[in-house]
Amino acid sequence: MSGSGFGLDARVGSTLPDAAAVARHDAAVFLLRARRDAAVAQVPDFEALRTRAAAIKDHTLDHLDRQLERFEAKARENGIVVHWAADARSLCEIVEALLRERSVRRVVKSKSMLTEECGLNPWLEARGFEVVDTDLGERIVQLEGEPPSHIIVPAIHRTRADVGALFHRHMGSPAGETDPERLMAHARADLRARFLAAEAGITGANFAVAETGSLVIVTNEGNADLGIILPPLHIACLGIEKLVPNLDDVAVFLRLLARSATGQPLSVYTSFLSAPRAGGELHVVLVDNGRSALLASESHRRALRCIRCGACLNTCPVYRRAGGHAYGVPVAGPIGAVLAPALVATREARELPYASSLCGSCTAVCPVRIDLHEQLLAWRREAPALPVSLRRGARFAAALLSRPRLFRAAARVARTLWPLFARRFPGNPASPWLRAREWPEHPGASFAERWRKTRGARP
Amino acid sequence: MSGREGVLVAVRRATRHGVAHPGPHPAPPLAADFASFAATLAAVGGEAHGPLARASLADAVLAHARRWAAGGRIVAEPSAAALLGTAAVEIARDAAAPHSFADVAVAIAKGSVGIAENGAVAVTADDAPHRALLFLAERVILLLDAASIVGDLHSAMRALPAAAWQSQLTFVSGPSKTADIEQTLVHGAHGPRALAVFVHQS
């Protein structure tokens, strides 16, 4: 991919510096895909679940105003305070005000891609709040000073040696410690003290149930629950697309979510919060930040079905080899490349739909049947952002392919020169490609030549 | 325009109220017996014991709790203490602050529904009013009536009382875990390092 002029290419090396790192990342990510497949095979109605999940989401999105109002009314009835934020800035201001009014300084936070998207952590830190990410992977990237590279496994690009060195610097674990169990024990002790000292907990939410006014929050570590139960103030931040009409529906999504994400039949903790805890406050912030614009787009509305399982990342040949940081936006992978042109909307974000072979593997695993590769193609039509070098290449190819005689002559020359590029050398445009691959052998004749030969041989 | 109206106006403009809801998903044909539940729970890192006669439940649970606690603090939720019919363990007090459970070695609570397809146990606010116990304890024991095991999550949601959706409810599927360091599975990320479910006859 190098040399094609994408911002993405330039960023690949930042996280995955060499071929060994790429291979390790690829294997780690694909392991999740393999686990997903094994889990899916255990569920007789998995394909029916996917179809129903897509239909439920399409209904919800088409009635989103009513679902939001229904959720708000029911949640208020149960003592939950509901806030609305049109954009990232208003989310940050609402949360900041809630913390200030209660003189909160120490905050524990569990994983939320929405707050990542809205820049809540940097906003609060710049104003003197101590914000501690409590999901182990999130804590690792927070201490490294980098964004998460995967929506489910934020530090999947880091090795155990990286984590050992990091914890040695920040938590005083012994130098050279690389055993995941002992490293976790250090993080557990460090974070337990922070949980107990926290004055507020901030979480995302996986679903909001309109029928009951409940939030559904899912973790494997139990970190969201500790952040909800221990401090007197809990603030949940969620995108307006998280609404689900009723309890029957939420079961459909829960049966799909963990299986698609990590191959677990259900995450370890699935908590339904329908009221504040005794003596505590529960605030919900419903955030738009570009979602209503996506909703208004006939071709991209389906992207809002996403339940952030990460299955499309785990199967994507580009994500697996490029790593999440290469995307340069909060959500990486195919779904990130579909959401970014609308939610991030920079020139770089509009380039992302081009960083795909359109192989369709993402579409094949998506639990809510988003036609991801079609969406990527649609963005290329609607918001063209092809880099200059590729635009030139495309024009050159068009000129060649529309002149058969010229094309055949050029192909003959190319076949003669073909073996010269099999090795890496300065100036060989194929050099980056050859870092991890072998140069294919050429059959010696073009398809047309061989076709004529075999057809001609027949009686 | 307030944040609320701004968001709702934009959403209203983009919705047509034309797409029909597909209706509830039919429950799949999945086994709903103790053996299936136990196998799934083991696969997700927990352990299932039983099904035990009611008369032998207390002895089995207390022996397990004491072995796990190794002299540490054992605390039972009132629901569990009533089932065990014992004064041998500390019972969580109504007014106890959540932070007061930070040093608990073993917590014991009742569960309301067990789910064979994912090894989860639904713990309602009535089962465990002191939610912190479930997450702060080093190890957790849940007590479950064998008759309350269902095959799938849809059936579990319907089996729970309406009150479950008015406060806190957690489905617990195995011990707390993480695989955030090189995909290596570690139990006891923040919450309990181990989970045992004792299934008893009604």
Mean pLDDT of chain B: 95
Radius of gyration of chain B: 20 Å
Query: H/E order of the elements of chain B?
Result: HHEHEHEEEEHEEHEEEE
The largest sheet of chain A has its strands arranged as 1-10-7-4-2-3
Unreliable stretches of chain B, pLDDT < 50, 5 or more residues? none
Helix content of chain A: 40-55%
Could you characterize the architecture of this molecule?
Chain A has about 450 residues and is of the alpha/beta class. Chain A is about 55% helix and about 10% strand. Chain A has 23 helices and 10 strands. Chain A has helices at about 5-15, 20-40, 45-60, 65-75, 90-100, 115-120, 120-125, 135-145, 160-170, 180-195, 225-230, 245-260, 290-295, 310-315, 315-320, 335-345, 345-350, 360-365, 370-380, 390-400, 405-415, 430-435, 445-455; strands spanning about 80-85, 105-110, 130-135, 200-205, 205-210, 215-220, 235-240, 245, 270-275, 280-285. In chain A, a hairpin with a 4-residue loop joins β5 (about 205-210) and β6 (about 215-220). In chain A, α3 crosses α12 (about 245-260). The radius of gyration of chain A is 25 Å and the shape is globular. With about 200 residues, chain B is of the alpha/beta class. In chain B, the strands form 3 sheets. Chain B has a 6-stranded parallel sheet with strand order 1-12-7-4-2-3. A 4-stranded mixed sheet of chain B has the order 8-5-6-9. The longest helix of chain B has 16 residues, at about 55-70. Chain B is globular. At the A-B interface, α2, α3, α4, β1 and α8 of A face α1, α5, α6, β9 and β10 of B.
